[in-house]
Amino acid sequence: MSPVSSNAPHGQSPLRTVQVLGGGNAGSSAHVRSLAAGLVARGVRVTVCAPAEADHAYGFSDVGADHVHVPRSSDPSSVAALRAACTDADLVHAHGLHASFRAALALSGRGTPLVVTWHSRAHAEGARAHLLRMLERRVARAATVVLGTTSDLVDRARRTGARDARLGAVALPGPRRLVDQDEAELLRPKIRAELGAMGRPLLMAVGSLDRHRGYDVLLDAARAWCRLDPVPLLVIAGEGPLRAELQRRIEDEELPVRLIGRRDDVAELLAAADLALLPSSWESRSVLAQEALHARVPLVATAVGGIPDLVGDAAELVAYGDSPALAGAVVRLLDDPERCAELRERGVRQAASWPTEDETVAQVLSVYDELTQPRPLP
Fold this sequence. Notes:
alpha/beta, Rossmann fold, glycosyltransferase activity, Glyco_trans_1, Glycosyltransferase_grp1
């Protein structure tokens, strides 16, 4: 059967899909909006089941999808609401572990195909980590197809018991904003003055202040930069539970680091930076890595998760947890403008190889088409 298009074949009704999203991180929520827009444009009926605040933030209804409020919890009432929304669906597509678990419960006893996208890996310790592994097994075995956004997520799904696990890399939907080179030259002095980085290198990290982001390692590396002249300034944009702990270290150790909280002008901040830093213990398709390469900002990142496949040879990669290696990579780049120029050019080429939103929608549609049969008109 050929892929579904805006004109359903004669004698068939349009495909009806339900997209299920939990709380959803920014990446998966933006992906669902992008996917909903692309599917609706191709004549597919789309219902997005997500908390009301997610529809307000990402505008699923604005792109032609129906929205059904389903709370984040997996209590019986939420599962019942989801089950009702999935009635008569040709296919259900859930995004993220918790949304996928709810979808599996809601579809229990029905023959509706369930596609699951794993956008990232949950981070937890102790009893919660054991619970998450149980949920992963339940979801992997219940899904008709698991799409992993990175090859290691695909491998994880297979190890967990998925019947069919495939790579389903997603585009960077609606980047915050791309700043062109002329605009960057104008913005650079203003932003650097605001941040206190005039006459010194500016290093930029972006992401929630959580344990898996590796900011403790980044602060260890910052101690080595204190010996440089001028001393680089590390700016971290983001909020999270570790803010107080990180701030205490910065003050106690007199580190050249500023925490500036959550920001909506990340594109402008990157345009002013000399280097972007990504020290995480694990990432899938990191938004920061993609935006840094788009913005022609040299990137130093950990060789974890989907990062090596994502950036190829367009970044300096170091082992996670190795603060001397991280510090050394930064020092070398700050002292090597030719290597920085090379990374900028490689970044442009690498970014051009990433899937577009249209290509992402087409791939998902091919999976849907494979899993559904001709649908007779009522």
